[in-house]
Amino acid sequence: MLIPRFNYHKPSTLKEACEIKGKLKNKALFLAGGTDILVNLKRGIISPENIISLNGIEELHLHSVDGKNGQTRIGACSTVATLAREKFLLPYSALLAGMNNLGSPIIRNLATIGGNLVTGRPAADISPSIIAYNGKMVLCSVSGKREVPADEFFMGPGKTALNDDEILTEIVLDNLSTYSGSAYIKLGTRRALEISLVNVAAFITLQKPDGPITGARIVMGAVGPAPLRAKTAENLLIGKKPSKSLFEEAGIAASGDSSPIDDFRGSAEYRRDMVNVLTARALTQALEDIK
Amino acid sequence: MKKLINVTVNQKKYELAVDVNMTLADMIREELKLTGTKKGCGLGECGACTVLLDGKPVSSCLVLAVEADNREVVTIEGVETENGLHPIQEAFVEKGAIQCGFCTPGMVLSAKALLDENPHPDEQEIRKAISGNLCRCTGYQKIVEAIQSVSVHK
Questions:
Q1: What is the sign, positive or negative, of the torsion defined by CA atoms of A51, A62, A175, A247?
Q2: A4 touches chain B (CB under 8 A)
Q3: Interface of A with B in 142-171 (CB under 8 A)
Q4: ipTM summary value
Q5: Within chain A, which residues score under 70 in pLDDT?
Q6: What's the CA gap between B72 and A215, in Å, rounded?
Q7: For the domain B2-78, what is the CATH code?
Q8: A/B interface, count of CB pairs below 8 Å
Q9: What is the mean pLDDT of residues B21-39?
Q10: CATH fold of the domain at B87-153
Q11: What domains are defined for chain A?
């Protein structure tokens, strides 16, 4: 399988990368881990005139806890395997589960968190949890930086809020409050190298150890053109004490919030049913996660 | 468009002019003639082209050769020691973990990366570590046993 020809750029600073991209705009694609781009190049789906490698830019590979602002900052080019080993990400159970479900070990050693997000796939493993945590995407261009809430970043299959002169540089997560917990469940037919049939991330916060629920964010993947918030289900949870029956009700509500399609992986009807089951299950796991 | 890269393969340093659209898998096989690295799907699904890049197993068909500039690659040819086969390779022979052999280089390298990091993995950890390497003869049981036998000996 041949890869079409292109001009190759390898900037060593973010500033330089922004300048190149600012000039070439949609005539250039960024290369990070390459696990999607190389496949698409070989399949002839894309054929860019220019490829800008981000792998020489050190600051895109950094990740740290910013204690002062109560935030966790993750460089977009950090590989999924590296992040999955980071102790400071351990409390982010949904993100961790998403990362451990992505591709396979040999893919995770290449694939980057930023790459998984900017490809904007509706079934992506990392996007749902980032939205659930109310994460922010830092986008950078020659004219400066801007922050976009993850909630508004994903606009459709392959479409994101990223302009053609911008780079995703960081993902920013607020540090978790005491009585909060999260979970991510992916439904597929295999445990590795699988694309989600349905996935659900849930993030809940309680006022005190035995409730009531003060914050709930549920995000469903592969049941719409982009990861979807199950807002009816979220609203139903607020102010109530967590219980099995409440979570079951939320599952039914989430099912109504989803808008899946029929495709070769599964039918819309099946997906809607699975949203119901996975939502209740993810909420139960998120509650366990608090303890 | 060609680019000059410096890459270490199996502890040997190379300076190569590579086409920027060449994959690491092709560089290893076509330029260096190290044909132990296999090309299966070419799309990162099968793991036959697994090599160690800075010690981590990756699909070399998904890496551009230029991206290996200033990095270290180990292929199956680099696993052998001066005393002959690597203990993992010995175990594969011993346990009959080889049928057609096409997945073997990738399996051995994924196993090596696992054992380098975790010398005593349990069965689940072994199965997870090789979950990106497909064996179409479906000889997984023997492969897992072979890796287990090395971890016990270590």
A1: positive
A2: yes
A3: none
A4: 0.96
A5: none
A6: 47
A7: 3.10.20.30
A8: 89
A9: 98
A10: DNA polymerase; domain 1 (1.10.150)
A11: 7-53 (3.30.43.10), 58-174 (3.30.465.10), 180-290 (3.30.390.50)
Q: Which two three-digit tokens encode residue A281?
A: 């299950």
Residue of B42, B63, B128 lying closest to A1 (CB–CB): B42
Please state, as a whole number, how many other Cβ atoms lie within 10 Å of the Cβ of residue A143.
11
B123 touching A, CB under 8 A? no
pLDDT number for residue B154: 54
Residue B141 has what pLDDT?
Answer: 96
pTM listed for this prediction: 0.95
Residue B153 has pLDDT above 80, yes or no: no
Report yes or no: B37 at the A interface, CB cutoff 8 Å: no
Looking at residue A282, its pLDDT comes to 98
pLDDT above 90: percentage of residues in chain A: 92
DSSP reduced 3-state for A28: strand
Structure tokens at B62: 């998904």
What residues have CB less than 8 Å from A262, skipping those under 6 apart?
A268
B133/A106 Cβ within 8 A: yes
**Is B59 in Cβ contact with A106 (below 8 Å)?**
yes
Min Cα separation A105/chain B (Å): 6
List of chain A residues whose C-beta atoms are within 8 Å of the C-beta of residue B37: none
Query: What local confidence, expressed as pLDDT, does residue B152 receive?
Result: 73
- Which residue is it, tokens 């445990």? A191
Alpha-carbon torsion A38, A100, B131, B106, what sign? positive
Using the Cβ of B98 and the Cβ atoms of chain A, whether some distance falls under 8 Å is answered with no
Residue type, A242: P
Q: Is A142 exposed, middle or buried (0-12, 13-18, 19+ CB in 10 A)?
A: middle
Average pLDDT, chain B: 96
